Amino acid sequence: MVTTIGIVGLGLMGGSLARRALETGIDVIAWNHDDSPYRAARDAGITCTNSVRELALARPQLVVLCNALHAMPEVLRALAPVLDRGATTLTDIGSVKAVVRRQVHEAGLADCYVGAHPMAGNEHSGFTASDPRLYDDALWAVTVDGSTTYRRFLDVAQFITRQLGDRLIVLDDIAHDRAAATISHMPHVVSTAMINLLCAQDNRNIAAALAAGSWRDMTRVALTDPARTRAMIEEDRENVEVLLRDMAARLEDVADALHVADERRVAAFFTQGDPFRAYVRASPPRGSSRAAVDTVDAVGGAQPTMHRLTLNTQPSAHTQPSAHMQPSLNTEASAQVPSWQTQLATSAERGEQIIRFLDDRTVEVLTRAVREPA
Amino acid sequence: MVTTIGIVGLGLMGGSLARRALETGIDVIAWNHDDSPYRAARDAGITCTNSVRELALARPQLVVLCNALHAMPEVLRALAPVLDRGATTLTDIGSVKAVVRRQVHEAGLADCYVGAHPMAGNEHSGFTASDPRLYDDALWAVTVDGSTTYRRFLDVAQFITRQLGDRLIVLDDIAHDRAAATISHMPHVVSTAMINLLCAQDNRNIAAALAAGSWRDMTRVALTDPARTRAMIEEDRENVEVLLRDMAARLEDVADALHVADERRVAAFFTQGDPFRAYVRASPPRGSSRAAVDTVDAVGGAQPTMHRLTLNTQPSAHTQPSAHMQPSLNTEASAQVPSWQTQLATSAERGEQIIRFLDDRTVEVLTRAVREPA
User: Fold this and answer.
1) Would the pLDDT of A208 be above 90?
2) Is the separation of the CB atoms in B13 and B120 below 8 Å?
3) Nearest Cα to Cα of residue A138 among A162, A163, A156, A164
4) For residue A41, which of A36, A46, A272, A322 is within the disulfide window of CB 3.0 to 4.6 Å?
5) How confident is the model at residue B285 (pLDDT cuts 50, 70, 90)?
6) Exposed, middle or buried, B357 (CB in 10 Å: 0-12/13-18/19+)?
7) Choosing among A70, A134, A182, which should be mutated to test the B contact, i.e. which has the most B CBs within 10 A?
């Protein structure tokens, strides 16, 4: 169990995590690039340091990088000479994972690193907006590669499940960044394109006046700091590009079908997403407690939706990867028994989420899957 | 002032309007295509009829068609032989206006018709979900053509402003349907394309697991009855087609800029919508009262944001249009002084909303404009 945590960056996400950790009895030591949040942070019970170095020297069991993505190389350079890798496991909560792992490798900190990305947040920013409830019932993506040791994974995973009471899935960086592009990065561009389109129209005032619920929902993310959104998109540009072209083709396709009044094709368009509609209907209401999640699944139907996975925690053959090679989790030709990384990555692909550890190598998972389209 | 209103269709919108009217002391007589909501409606104080004919024969000052769009021709055919045009003004709340006016013309009811579309609603449906608060602070689009008499307009507009306490803008059908396509119909297609894209991916379970706020907001409208959405899009297919191609081009453009890592072009994309961001920042918070709206504007800045318009209520030269001709409100070559229709349509283009009538031909308007993009 983590008893002391180091938080780098006391913005909305880092500040909320710090306050959540405090609530669960963990000591929190934190550094921020400026000391503007320190007074409020100290009032909340957080120990604030003058440097990243000072934070590292306190030897917290876990250091969580909650700083802006652009500051990552600098923070890692400051940590590298002083971080006690025996005592401390390093993680981060960045919204893109491949680039962070590369920077961690470059700083020579790969051996104590596990990536993480909590699915939490809101449109506000800064420590003043922080809220320990922000992490309630959050799902975390935990990113590993073939060289990640099980002990490091366990440090992060048990902090998430036991101490925060959250859920997690395990992915490689590529799968994470591709999925994040689908559900966040690409949608941010689409939302932004919508407000651009409105502004470009002669009838912009009429359109803005008529805008109601659907427009408000679909453009909310375009209203948040466009510079931050742009940085996020540029970090994941290859995935975003592919998805934008995919979306453009889908919209052109509907336009073509409307042009020729092909009702059959229009109708088909409106049913393609039925598997996702069914997935949402089967999900527990937002903000429901863990108990409610369990109950929904208990009454969910004939198929068992909770089961156990026993993990193969033997180190794999790939324990010394080169700094820039990220062995895919799914192509371990040499292994007879899949590694824990592969077991958990395929579990995530099946729609399973880790709810809790029953012992150090047995996890309980909940299944919440989108059926294959017809 | 309206003392008796007839409501055709007791779904979410019609039911909510009926209950709102009752609250303000108006007698409500209603018909629904089946009598399933009648028990609850009668308990609420609504007089329910066995036929559209019976409703018309009660001679309410206002009949509001709140039925489904596909039922419009049948309802109009039932009304035509019995509606007392001297006693009753006819309006509707359909989300597309050109097609409804055409159907009204075909039924021979154009002389007593004014179109309307309240910007209100939620994801629920049916009388059981109805709520008089649904119309709180709503903006209504009121649609007229060159043949609409000022008296008919006044019947609808004063009901909206004086009796419901809502705001309105005046448009022709073409301007309405184009703007509605921008802020509602096209976004519904975009949202649907996003869930289709997710379902088509191999990593659909991972993407669905990671989905958080931005995805939830942007796909909410894709989850509501896709058949209803499809009907709405098909009724406005020409405008939607143009906008979908516009959106597709914008997305391809960003994809191209990301492909060549053209940071300048990506940056420009993220600032194009700044006029809309400024517009939202200057708007009163959602759900704020009329008093709050007035206050925000009173403190809004140097420019006066409330002013008066005196309307030219003389009938224009075009009082006998043919059934299928809709004279544009902005091209009255013969008129020396713009007609009230033209005055109000250009007022809407400037971002003005009618707050109240000061007398029968003077309106007070509030300006809420999106500045022209740089």
Assistant:
1) yes
2) yes
3) A164
4) A46
5) low
6) middle
7) A182
Amino acid at B106: E
CB pair distance less than 8 Å for B184 and A227: no
Judged by a CB distance cut-off of 8 A, whether residue A35 touches chain B is no
- Which residues in chain B have Cβ-Cβ distances shorter than 8 Å to A230? 266-267, 270
How much is the pTM?
0.85
ipTM: 0.89
Cα–Cα dist A161/A208, whole Å: 44
The distance of Cα A112 from the centroid of its chain, to the nearest Å, equals 19
Q: Round to whole Å and give the CA distance between B195 and B176.
A: 28
User: Looking at the predicted structure, is the pLDDT value of residue B304 above 80?
Assistant: no
A192 touches chain B (CB under 8 A): yes
Residue from B125, B140, B206 whose CB has the most chain A CBs within 10 Å, to mutate: B206
When CB atoms are compared, the residue of B212, B238, B251 closest to A193 is B251
**In the predicted model, is pLDDT for residue A279 greater than 60?**
yes
Q: Provide the pLDDT confidence category of residue A285 given band limits of 50, 70 and 90.
A: low
Query: In the sheet where A62-65 sits, what is the strand order?
Result: A47-48, A27-31, A4-8, A62-65, A89-92
Determine the average pLDDT of the residues in A31-50: 98
Q: Which helix (H) or strand (E) holds B12?
A: helix B12-23
Amino acid present at A70: H
Per-residue pLDDT band for B125 (boundaries 50, 70, 90) equals: confident
- Please judge whether B249 and A248 are an interchain contact, meaning their C-beta atoms are less than 8 angstroms apart: yes
Closest listed residue to residue B354, CA positions, set B365, B345, B344: B365
The pLDDT, as a whole number, for residue A122 is: 78
How many helices and strands, by DSSP H and E, does chain A display?
16, 11
A68 touches chain B (CB under 8 A): no
Q: A218 in contact with B at a CB cutoff of 8 Å?
A: yes
Residues A168 and A355: their CA atoms lie apart, in Å, by 7
CB A30 within 8 A of CB A6: yes
Residue with structure tokens 């863990």? A290
Q: What is the pLDDT of residue B337?
A: 86
Mean pLDDT of B67-71: 93
Q: Which of residues 141-160 of B touch A (CB under 8 A)?
A: 141
Backbone torsion region of residue B177, taken as left when φ is above 0, otherwise alpha when ψ lies between -120 and 50, otherwise beta: alpha
Phi, psi values for residue A117, rounded to 5°: -150, 100
Q: How far apart are CA A122 and CA A128, in angstroms?
A: 13
Report H helices in B147-262.
150-158, 173-180, 186-200, 204-210, 213-223, 226-235, 237-259
Do the Cβ atoms of B121 and A213 come closer than 8 Å? Answer: yes
Res. A319 pLDDT band, cuts 50 70 90:
very low
∠B21-B340-B97 over CA atoms, to 5°? 55
* Tokens encoding A374: 């017809």
Distances (CA, A) of A257 to A260, B184, B334: 5, 19, 41
- How far lies A258's CA from each of A214, B187, B191, B236, in Å? 21, 15, 17, 10
Q: Residue A266, Cβ neighbours under 10 Å: how many?
A: 18
Could A223 and B280 be called an inter-chain contact, meaning their C-beta atoms sit closer than 8 Å?
Answer: yes
Contact A15, A42 (CB under 8 A): no
Contacts of A117 (CB under 8 A, 6+ apart): A93, A94, A95, A97, A140, A141, A143, A176, A180, B210
Secondary structure letter of residue B184 according to DSSP? I
The CA distance from A275 to A267, in Å, is: 15
Question: Do A121 and A13 meet the contact criterion of CB atoms below 8 Å apart?
Answer: yes
Can you give the pLDDT at residue A329?
A: 57
